[in-house]
Structure to design on (1167 residues):
C-alpha cells in the first residue's frame, strides 16, 4: 500500500510541475496587456506603462519569473491579484467554501438519486422504468447546463417565484463566516430562517450542477450492476434461493460499487467545469466564477494561481480515489 | 483569533441593535465587485461607488445630481491671481469613523490632506507602494505628478497646493473619487502593526457610511456613520448586493430583494416603467459613443468621405436597437448636460442618397472598410457588435462594404491607438469631472494622437481653441472657445458621433432622496425609505 | 474479455457487407440509437441545405420585427415561425444555419482530436520507454485541468473566436484518444499477427498504422462519437461565455449569450437555441450508445 502511494506521489510531483509550467506560460502568452487594462479607455503613457510592468516584475526574464513564482508557491505564496491587489491564496480560501458547498450538494444529489435509480434500472432491465431512467439520464448527460440553469431560473425564480434568483443567502441574514459553508454558518448563527434561506438559495444551482454527474452515475451504476448480476456467484446465490433483496444488498452491491466509486471520483473534474458555468449563471461567489471573471479582467496572476490550485485539488482527489479503490477492491493488492 | 472574535462580537452587537429598533436597511444591487477600497488606486466606477462615495469625502464635492462643485472637507479656498496657488481652509470638527477596527483619537486636520496627496504623488512615500502593484492611475492620468509642484500644511486647518502651470479644471479634479481624503492616523496605526494592506480592505474615512464587512463577490455592508459632519443618514444600514447579471438584478428588484439597481437591460426598461412598485429615473449620461475614422488613412483623410459616411448612418436605428430608445442621438462630441454644449450646431441629416452621391463626387468607388466593434458593454455603448452590424447594413446601402472586426478588450484599446490602424473604431468616453476639457482636449487634442485620439486627428484650429481654453480660468470665456471648437469639429467630422446614453436608474417606489449623478456615480448620501 | 478477437472484428468474416450486416443487426436492436441516427441524418440534411430551407438569411435584419414572438403566440407572425431576436433576425433561420456550425465544429474537433490522439497514442504504445513516459505525463497534465477551464484559458490565450475555440477543445479532448489508442496498441502488439508481421519484416510505420491500428478502431469510434457531442457542448459553452464564435455568427451558444438579456422578456430567444443544442447532442449520444453496444463484445454477451 505504502509503495503504491509513494509510486503515485512520484508521478504526481512531475505532473504538478508540468501543470505549474503550463499555468505559468499560458498567462505570459495571453494577448492583451493587463497593465493597460487598469486604465480602461484612458490611455497610459509608455513610461508609466513600463514603470508598472517593472513594479509587477513582468520585465524580468521568464525563467527567473518562473523560479521566483514556483519558489513562492512552495512557501504558500501564490502571488497577488493584479486587479484587487489581494493575495491569491486569501481570495481562494474565501471563495472555495462556496464552490465546495455547491459541489458537495450536487454530488450528494447525484449519488442519492443516481445510485438507486441505476440499481433498480438494472434489476428491472428492459422494463419501462429502466427505459425511462436511462432515457432521462441520457438527456441529462446531453444537457447544455448553462441553458438548463437559465430555464430553471425562468421557471422557478421568475414565473413561480419559489426560489431566489441568485446569491447564497438572503441579505436579511448577516453573520460572520465561521466555516465559510453557508448551511453550517446559518445554523451556527442561530438566526431563525437563515438556514431555510441558505437552502432555498442552494437548490437550483445544486440541481443544475448535479445534472451531468447524476446521469453519469446512474448509467455507470446500472451497467456495473448488470455486469455483477450476470456473474456466476450471483446466479448461484439466486439458485440457492436467496431473496433478490439479499442478493442485491449483500453480494452484488459491494462489487458493483467499485467502478461507481471511481466514477464519482472522476466527477470532481466534471464538477469544476460545471461550476464555471453554474456559478456564472447564478452569481454564485465561488472559484468558478472567479476564474471566468479573471479571464475577462486579464488578471494574469489569478488565472495562473487558480489553474494551479484547481489542478492541484483535482490531482489530490484522484489520488485519494485511487487509494480508496485499492482499499475496497479486495482483488487488487499492491 | 482575537480579530475574529471582535468582529463576531461587533456583528452580534450590530444585529441585536438592528433587530431592536426597526432598522432601515437600504440594499443596492451593484453590478460588480469593487477592486478594492482605496479609491486612489483604481479607475472603475464600481469601486468608487463602493468606497469613495460611501466611506470617504474629498476637499470639494460634486453637488448631488450636478457636475458643479461645492465645499466638502474644505470649507473655503482662495486661488492666487496667477492661478498657481490654491489655499484650502479645512472644515472644523470633522470626525473619522469609529469602527470595530479603528477608533480615531483626533479630528481631520491638514496632515490627513497632505498625506492623501503625498502618497499618490511621491514615490518615496512609504504608502506609495503599500500593496504590490499599487499604481495611482487617476492621479497619473490627470497629470498630477507634473501639474502639482507642492502640497504644504500651513497650519492644522490650512493646506496650500501649488501648481506648475494654471489648470482650469483643477478644482473639479479634486472632487473626483480618487482624491478621497484618508486618515493619516489610521495609516500610522496600520503601519505600526505591519498591516498596511488593510487600508485597501477595511477603509476608514469621514463619509456618511462606515465600512462593516465585505464578503468577496457577494455582499458589502456599511452602517450609517453617527458622527458624520453632514448629519447622520436616515437609513441605518447600507448593503451592496453584488449581482453581475442585469436580468437577475431586475428580478431581485421586482422581488423587493433590493431597492435600487444600476444598468438595467435596455429591453427591460419598458416593463419597469409599467411596474407600480417601481419608479425609473432617467438622465442623459455624461458620455459619448463615437465611430472614429482614421483620418490619416486614405480615403478617410478626405472630409467629404467622412461626411458622406456620417450621413449614411441611421443613428436612430442604433438608438432603438441597442438602447431600445434609452439614448439620444449625438451631434456634438460632448453631452448636452455639459456646460458649453453648442446646441446651435446642425447634425448631418441621415440621407443615404445624398451620401452616395457625395462619395461618388469624391471619386471613391467600391470602398470596403473595417469597422471595429468593442467586445464589451459600456454605458455609452451597450452592444457595439449590434451597432456595428447596423452600420454595416447602412453602409451597404451606399455601396460601402464593411467588415466588422473585434479584439479582446485590452487589445482593442491598445490596437485602436495605433496611428496606422486600419478602419474606423467604435469607442466612447464617460466624463470624469464634468469639464469639457475632459472630452475635447483629452479625446481630440493633438497631444492625444496615438493615444486617446482614436481619429488620429490633429487640427490646428481646433487644437489652439481647446489648449487656450484649458489655461483660461474665466468660464464665460472658456464656454465661447469650446463652442467654436465644436463648430470646427462638426465641419471636419473626424468622428461619427453616435449617441449619448441615458442613464436609467430603476428603484423601488419607497426610495426617496436619491440623486442621479450625471457623472454616473451611485452615491447614497441622503437616501431614505418611505413606506 | 475472453474473445477480444470479435472487437477487431467482426473480422472473422472478411467481407465488408457481412461485417456491416452484423454491425447493423446489433445497432438496430437499440431503438434509441436508430431514432438518434435518423435525427442526426435529418440534421445533416438541414445543415447541407440550410440556405435553401431557411426562410430568411441568418443575418437579415427586419427592423420592423424586433423580438416578435413565435407564430403561435399572440403577436406572432407567420413569416417568423419561431419569432425574432433583438435586431429582428428570424430565429428559425439562424437555428437552421447554426446547424452547420455545430456539425462543422463537431466534425473538425473530432477529426483533430482523433488524428492527433491516434498518432500520439500509437507512438507511445508502440515504442514505450521514455517516449511513452513523456507523452503520458503530458497527457496527465492536460487531464489535470477541468476541460472547460483549460479550453477557456486556451481561448483567452489564442483570442476569442470559433477557430481558436475548436483548437482548444480538440486539445483538451485529445488525451482520451491517446490513452485509448495506447492501451489498445499495447494489447495488440504482442499478439500473433503482429509478431508475424514483424518477422515478415514490416517497418515500424507499417506495423503501427497498417497492422495494429485497424484492430483498435472499435473503442476509438465510440470515443469519437462521445467527443463529437462533447465538442458541440463545449463550443456552445465557450460561445455562451463570450469566448467562442463571435456574434453575429448564428452559433447556438453564442445566440444564447446574446439572448441572455431577454431572459425574462422574450423566452423564445433563450429557449430555442438551447433546445437545438440538446436535441443535437442527444441524437449523437444515442447513436454513440448504439455504436458501443454494437461494437463492444462484452455488452453483446450479456
Amino acid at each position: 500500500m505504502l509503495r503504491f502511494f509513494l509510486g503515485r506521489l512520484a508521478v504526481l510531483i512531475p505532473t504538478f510541475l508540468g501543470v505549474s509550467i503550463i499555468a505559468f506560460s499560458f498567462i505570459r502568452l495571453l494577448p492583451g496587456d493587463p497593465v493597460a487594462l487598469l486604465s480602461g479607455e484612458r490611455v497610459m503613457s509608455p513610461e508609466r506603462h513600463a514603470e508598472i510592468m517593472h513594479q509587477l516584475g513582468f520585465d524580468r526574464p521568464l525563467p527567473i519569473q518562473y523560479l521566483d513564482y514556483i519558489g513562492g508557491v512552495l512557501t504558500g505564496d501564490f502571488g497577488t491579484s493584479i486587479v484587487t491587489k489581494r493575495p491569491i491564496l486569501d481570495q481562494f480560501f474565501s471563495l472555495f467554501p462556496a464552490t465546495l458547498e455547491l459541489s458537495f450538494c450536487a454530488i450528494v444529489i447525484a449519488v442519492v438519486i443516481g445510485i438507486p435509480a441505476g440499481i433498480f434500472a438494472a434489476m428491472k432491465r428492459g422494463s419501462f422504468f429502466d427505459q425511462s431512467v436511462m432515457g432521462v439520464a441520457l438527456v441529462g448527460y446531453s444537457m447544455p447546463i448553462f441553458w438548463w440553469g437559465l430555464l430553471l431560473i425562468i421557471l422557478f425564480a421568475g414565473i413561480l417565484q419559489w426560489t431566489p434568483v441568485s446569491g447564497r443567502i438572503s441579505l436579511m441574514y448577516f453573520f460572520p463566516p465561521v466555516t465559510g459553508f453557508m448551511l453550517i454558518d446559518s445554523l451556527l448563527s442561530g438566526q431563525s430562517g437563515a438556514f431555510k434561506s441558505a437552502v432555498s438559495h442552494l437548490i437550483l444551482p445544486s440541481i443544475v450542477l448535479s445534472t451531468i454527474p447524476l446521469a453519469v452515475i446512474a448509467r455507470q451504476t446500472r451497467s456495473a450492476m448488470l455486469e455483477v448480476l450476470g456473474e456466476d456467484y450471483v446466479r448461484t446465490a439466486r439458485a440457492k434461493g436467496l431473496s433478490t433483496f439479499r442478493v442485491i444488498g449483500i453480494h452484488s452491491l459491494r462489487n458493483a460499487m467499485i467502478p461507481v466509486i471511481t466514477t464519482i471520483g472522476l466527477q470532481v473534474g466534471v464538477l469544476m467545469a460545471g461550476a464555471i458555468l453554474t456559478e456564472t449563471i447564478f452569481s454564485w461567489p465561488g472559484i468558478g466564477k472567479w476564474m471566468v471573471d479573471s479571464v475577462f479582467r486579464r488578471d494574469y496572476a489569478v488565472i495562473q494561481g487558480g489553474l494551479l490550485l484547481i489542478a492541484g485539488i483535482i490531482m489530490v482527489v484522484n489520488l485519494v480515489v485511487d487509494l480508496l479503490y485499492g482499499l475496497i477492491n479486495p482483488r487488487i493488492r499492491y | 483569533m482575537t480579530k475574529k472574535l471582535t468582529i463576531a462580537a461587533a456583528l452580534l452587537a450590530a444585529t441585536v441593535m438592528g433587530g431592536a429598533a426597526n432598522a432601515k436597511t437600504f440594499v443596492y444591487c451593484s453590478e460588480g465587485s469593487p477592486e478594492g477600497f482605496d479609491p486612489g488606486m483604481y479607475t472603475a466606477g464600481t469601486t468608487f461607488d463602493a468606497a469613495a462615495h460611501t466611506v470617504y469625502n474629498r476637499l470639494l464635492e460634486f453637488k448631488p445630481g450636478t457636475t458643479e462643485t461645492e465645499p466638502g472637507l474644505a470649507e473655503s479656498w482662495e486661488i492666487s491671481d496667477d492661478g498657481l496657488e490654491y489655499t484650502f481652509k479645512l472644515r472644523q470638527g470633522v470626525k473619522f469613523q469609529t469602527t470595530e477596527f479603528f477608533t480615531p483619537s483626533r479630528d481631520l486636520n491638514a496632515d490627513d490632506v497632505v498625506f492623501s496627496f503625498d502618497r499618490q504623488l511621491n514615490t518615496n512615500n512609504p504608502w506609495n507602494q503599500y500593496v504590490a502593484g499599487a499604481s495611482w492611475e487617476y492621479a497619473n492620468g490627470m497629470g498630477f505628478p507634473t501639474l502639482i509642484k507642492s502640497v504644504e500644511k500651513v497650519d492644522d486647518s490650512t493646506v496650500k497646493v501649488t501648481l506648475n502651470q494654471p489648470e482650469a479644471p483643477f478644482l473639479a479634479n479634486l472632487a473626483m473619487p480618487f482624491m478621497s481624503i484618508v486618515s493619516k492616523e489610521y495609516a500610522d496605526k496600520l503601519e505600526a502593526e505591519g498591516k498596511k494592506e488593510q487600508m485597501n480592505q477595511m477603509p476608514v474615512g469621514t463619509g456618511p457610511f462606515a465600512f462593516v464587512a465585505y464578503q468577496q463577490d457577494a455582499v458589502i455592508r456599511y452602517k450609517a456613520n453617527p458622527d458624520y459632519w453632514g448629519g447622520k443618514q436616515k437609513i441605518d444600514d447600507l448593503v451592496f448586493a453584488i449581482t453581475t447579471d442585469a436580468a437577475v438584478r431586475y428580478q431581485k428588484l421586482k422581488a423587493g430583494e433590493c431597492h435600487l439597481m444600476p444598468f438595467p437591460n435596455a429591453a427591460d426598461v419598458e416593463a419597469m416603467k409599467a411596474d407600480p412598485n417601481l419608479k425609473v429615473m432617467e438622465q442623459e449620461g455624461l458620455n459619448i459613443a463615437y465611430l472614429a475614422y482614421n483620418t490619416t488613412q486614405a480615403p478617410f483623410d478626405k472630409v467629404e468621405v467622412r461626411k458622406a459616411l456620417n450621413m449614411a448612418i441611421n443613428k436612430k436605428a442604433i438608438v432603438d436597437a441597442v438602447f431600445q430608445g434609452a439614448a439620444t442621438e449625438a451631434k456634438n462630441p460632448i453631452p448636452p448636460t455639459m456646460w458649453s454644449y453648442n446646441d446651435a450646431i446642425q447634425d448631418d441629416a441621415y440621407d443615404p442618397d445624398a451620401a452616395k452621391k457625395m462619395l461618388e463626387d469624391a471619386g471613391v468607388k467600391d470602398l470596403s472598410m473595417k469597422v471595429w466593434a468593442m467586445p464589451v458593454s459600456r454605458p455609452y455603448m451597450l452592444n457595439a457588435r449590434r451597432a456595428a452590424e447596423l452600420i454595416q447594413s447602412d453602409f451597404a446601402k451606399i455601396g460601402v462594404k464593411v467588415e466588422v472586426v473585434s479584439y479582446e478588450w485590452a487589445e482593442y484599446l491598445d490596437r485602436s491607438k495605433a496611428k496606422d490602424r486600419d478602419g474606423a473604431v467604435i469607442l466612447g468616453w464617460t466624463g470624469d469631472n464634468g469639464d469639457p476639457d475632459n472630452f475635447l482636449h483629452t479625446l481630440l487634442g493633438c497631444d492625444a494622437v496615438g493615444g486617446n485620439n482614436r481619429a488620429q486627428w490633429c487640427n490646428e484650429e481646433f487644437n489652439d481653441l481647446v489648449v487656450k481654453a484649458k489655461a483660461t480660468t474665466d468660464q464665460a470665456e472658456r464656454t465661447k472657445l469650446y463652442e467654436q471648437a465644436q463648430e470646427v469639429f462638426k465641419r471636419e467630422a473626424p468622428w461619427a458621433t453616435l449617441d449619448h446614453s441615458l442613464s436609467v436608474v430603476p428603484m423601488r417606489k419607497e426610495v426617496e432622496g436619491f440623486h442621479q449623478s450625471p457623472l454616473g456615480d451611485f452615491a447614497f448620501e441622503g437616501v431614505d425609505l418611505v413606506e | 474479455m475472453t474473445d477480444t478477437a470479435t472487437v477487431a472484428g467482426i473480422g472473422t468474416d472478411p467481407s465488408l457487407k457481412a461485417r456491416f450486416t452484423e454491425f447493423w443487426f446489433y445497432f438496430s436492436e437499440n431503438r434509441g440509437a436508430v431514432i438518434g441516427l435518423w435525427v442526426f441524418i435529418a440534421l445533416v440534411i438541414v445543415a447541407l441545405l440550410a440556405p435553401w430551407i431557411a426562410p430568411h438569411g441568418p443575418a437579415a435584419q427586419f427592423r420592423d420585427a424586433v423580438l416578435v414572438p413565435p407564430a403561435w403566440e399572440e403577436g406572432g407572425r407567420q413569416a417568423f415561425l419561431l419569432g425574432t431576436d433583438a435586431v429582428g433576425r428570424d430565429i428559425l433561420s439562424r437555428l437552421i444555419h447554426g446547424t452547420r456550425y455545430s456539425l462543422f465544429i463537431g466534425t473538425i474537433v473530432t477529426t483533430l482530436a482523433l488524428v492527433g490522439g491516434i498518432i500520439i497514442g500509437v507512438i507511445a504504445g508502440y515504442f514505450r520507454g521514455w517516449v511513452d513516459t513523456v507523452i503520458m505525463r503530458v497527457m496527465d497534465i492536460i487531464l489535470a485541468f477541468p476541460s472547460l477551464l483549460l479550453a477557456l484559458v486556451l481561448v483567452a490565450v489564442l483570442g476569442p473566436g470559433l477557430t481558436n475555440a475548436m483548437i482548444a477543445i480538440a486539445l483538451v479532448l485529445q488525451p482520451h484518444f491517446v490513452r485509448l489508442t495506447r492501451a489498445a496498441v499495447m494489447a495488440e502488439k504482442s499478439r500473433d499477427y503482429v509478431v508475424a508481421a514483424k518477422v515478415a519484416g514490416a517497418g515500424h510505420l507499417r506495423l503501427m498504422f497498417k497492422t495494429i491500428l485497424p484492430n483498435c478502431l472499435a473503442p476509438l469510434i465510440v470515443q469519437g462519437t462521445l467527443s463529437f457531442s462533447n465538442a458541440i457542448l463545449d463550443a456552445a459553452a465557450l460561445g455562451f461565455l463570450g469566448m467562442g464564435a463571435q456574434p453575429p455568427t448564428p452559433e447556438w451558444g453564442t445566440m444564447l449569450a446574446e439572448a441572455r438579456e431577454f431572459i425574462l422578456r422574450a423566452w423564445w430567444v433563450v429557449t430555442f437555441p438551447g433546445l437545438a443544442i440538446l436535441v443535437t447532442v442527444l441524437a449523437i449520444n444515442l447513436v454513440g450508445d448504439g455504436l458501443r453496444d454494437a461494437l463492444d463484445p462484452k455488452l453483446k454477451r450479456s
About this structure: Residues 244-281 of chain A form the longest helix (38 residues). The mean pLDDT of chain A is 84.
